[in-house]
Amino acid sequence: MQFRHLAGRVWLCPGNPDPEAVQAGVAVVADERGSVMIDAGQSPAHAREIQAALAAAGLPKPRWLVYTHHHWDHVWGACAWPGVEIVGHETAVMLLRAEAARPWSHHYLREQIRANPRLGPSFRARTRAVDSWEDFVVLPPTRTFTDVDELPVGVRLRHVGGGHAPDSTVVLVPDSGVMLLGDCFYPPPAHLRRPEDGLDLGLVRRLLDDTYHWYVSSHAEPMTLEQARSAAGA
């Protein structure tokens, strides 16, 4: 696992390409005034691997941790990021408080799969991701916004919502020409997905902007503006 430079201040650390791992990639906007971490990793163990990769790349420690949305593979590593301000859309607070109240354990995950087999892929991935529940806690954001926000280092946040998650947020780094999309245009999670659900390419078309040259989703390789236009049929 290592960070690679994309453009300007933006560095990427890819997730596990095996879809059964359900491991999202993360990004960091490196700044001597305080870096911004985009998503937390899928578990404390994953977060610690990300931290080691940050150190190996000589990148500054993050001051802010931004959630692109509340799904577990983007937020379960947050408890291993001490001293950061967690930023997310206001709707994530209620959603993550509900998640935090669940009695997470391997036993609980197995029980949930038995009760609803459609949860199997996600919940089995969680059992593999978390080796110990002793210090595990789900953390809601401590700084929230409604429509847009801007951090002191020029990183902008825009709520877009969509079918994948109601709190989906895109992260804009204008000076680097990079837009971090999270999972915003993906279909709903597998256990909620209907046969007619697919990628929300209309959302992608609305986000395309000539001032941004790179478009990065959490589970795929970065796309140039031209590639994004082609993929979205724009």
UniProtKB/TrEMBL annotation:
Keywords: Hydrolase. Residues 23-219 form the Metallo-beta-lactamase domain. Pfam families: Lactamase_B (PF00753). It comes from Micromonospora arborensis. SUPFAM superfamilies: Metallo-hydrolase/oxidoreductase. One of its GO terms (molecular function) is hydrolase activity. The keyword Hydrolase applies. This is MBL fold metallo-hydrolase. The keyword Electron transport does not apply.
